[in-house]
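To the wet lab folks,

You asked to see what we're planning to order before we commit. Fair enough. Below is the target structure as tokens, and below that is the sequence we designed to fit it. If anything looks off to you, flag it before the synthesis order goes out.
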């Protein structure tokens, strides 16, 4: 069996500066393959460029809520006004090829001995947020492999289920042993919300069966300059500086 080292990227949100920095970091760490838990577009100025990078990488990815709403002409009533305005802006940037690519993304995928989903496996199309073990419990009923990666909250976190007990483990290095199940939020590449402006992603080695988190500094000022040039709301730029 060929051993692989996967970079698991989530919530890129059109931030090309962050995405390129993360890819460089991953390559320097010997990553062989890229996969993603979705939300490639939305919020920042470069949705088309980020889709192109994903396609060039051959990155296996699932659909995030922003990928969905930016490519389907559905009502944005459930979104906060700021998010809704940026989704409307992103819709205007996407060409037909990008829209088709986003349409074809699955809600979840089993790949390479692990699972990928943006929110949860119980009802992925409902885009539920997992902030506690109660929310993780419903998901675990549908997780058939020992390892599943997700995103959506933009906060890195590990949920572990062992003998019917679910616990939250602070994101650090974790060795995936057979028996327990791990539901791992990989954090966000393009809009971190854990009070740290650096991009976060996870690396999974099939050889050691270890998942570790990587944090990457990128040129936040460049990302902000692109957002301002595109006329996107300044609040989005401020949150990149703060990482929340
Ligand atoms: Zn997101």
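Sequence we intend to order:
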């Amino acid at each position: 069996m060929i051993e692989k080292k996967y970079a698991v990227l989530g919530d890129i949100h059109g931030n090309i500066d962050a995405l390129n920095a993360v890819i460089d970091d991953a390559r320097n760490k010997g990553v062989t393959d890229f996969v993603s838990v979705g939300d490639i577009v939305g919020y920042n100025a470069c949705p088309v460029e980020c889709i192109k990078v994903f396609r060039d990488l051959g990155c296996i990815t699932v659909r995030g809520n922003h990928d969905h709403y930016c490519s389907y002409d559905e009502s944005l009533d459930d979104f906060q006004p700021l998010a809704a305005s940026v989704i409307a802006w992103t819709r205007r940037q996407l060409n037909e090829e990008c829209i088709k690519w986003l349409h074809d993304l699955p809600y979840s995928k089993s790949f390479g001995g692990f699972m990928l989903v943006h929110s949860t496996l119980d009802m992925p199309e409902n885009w539920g947020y997992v902030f506690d073990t109660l929310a993780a419990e419903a998901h675990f009923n549908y997780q058939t492999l020992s390892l599943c990666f997700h995103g959506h909250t933009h906060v890195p976190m590990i949920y572990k289920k062992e003998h019917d007990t679910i616990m939250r483990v602070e994101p650090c290095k974790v060795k995936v042993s057979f028996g327990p199940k791990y539901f791992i939020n990989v954090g966000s590449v393009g809009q971190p919300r854990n009070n740290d402006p650096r991009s976060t992603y996870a690396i999974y080695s099939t050889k050691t069966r270890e998942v570790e988190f990587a944090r990457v500094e990128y040129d936040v000022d460049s990302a902000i300059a692109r957002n301002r040039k595109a006329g996107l709301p300044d609040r989005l730029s401020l949150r990149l500086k703060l990482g929340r």
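Structural context that might help your review: The domain at 5-242 is CATH 3.60.21.10 (Purple Acid Phosphatase; chain A, domain 2). The chain has one domain: 5-242.

Thanks,
Computational group
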